[in-house]
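Try this one yourself first.
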């Protein structure tokens, strides 16, 4: 009886198909809705992260997040199989929503070569979305590494630090706040 009770308890508390999975799925669906809302501000055609419930199951989770690209019939089985640009936007959405969920929305947002894999149209939309995050006080500061002047030049209240000015276009005013020795 104890062994059967233990098996039942383990089954019911499983993070893949028990009541813990059911609770996680509710959080995951809320998180995905917020992430998809962020993605919709940037992406020019339908791109949506789906929850990780196994097909045909309401509470069994496999922790792979399918990606719907353009149409409901075009499903990439896991985000990691999406294009580089799609993964970049999904990662940004996950980062922003995770920081909000953890109460870190009043912290600096760090971006390293964000948008480098995006086409021009998506890059402009992504830069605008980041600019909106900063201007709406969602994040107090932005630390951004970029070689794309068109991208970082879109931020009006910025201080630029150029470590090596060779082979890049530099703004008129830079390194006024730092001393490089």
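Now uncover the answer:
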């Amino acid at each position: 009886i104890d062994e059967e009770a233990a098996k039942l308890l383990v089954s019911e508390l499983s993070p893949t198909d028990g009541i813990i999975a059911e609770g996680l799925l509710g959080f995951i669906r809320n998180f995905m809705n917020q992430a998809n809302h962020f993605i919709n501000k940037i992406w020019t055609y339908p791109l949506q992260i789906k929850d990780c419930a196994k097909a045909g199951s309401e509470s069994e989770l496999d922790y792979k997040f399918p990606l719907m690209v353009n149409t409901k019939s075009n499903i990439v089985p896991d985000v990691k199989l999406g294009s580089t640009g799609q993964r970049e936007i999904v990662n940004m959405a996950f980062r922003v929503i995770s920081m909000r969920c953890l109460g870190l929305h009043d912290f600096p947002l760090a971006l390293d070569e964000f948008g480098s894999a995006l086409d021009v149209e998506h890059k402009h939309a992504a830069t605008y979305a980041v600019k909106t995050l900063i201007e709406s006080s969602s994040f107090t500061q932005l630390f951004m590494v970029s070689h794309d002047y068109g991208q970082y030049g879109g931020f009006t209240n910025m201080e630029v630090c150029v470590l090596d000015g060779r082979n890049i276009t530099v703004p008129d005013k830079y390194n006024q706040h730092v001393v490089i020795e």
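Discussion: Strands lie at 47-49, 67-69, 75-76, 109-112, 142-145. The CA atoms of residues 31 and 59 lie 16 Å apart.
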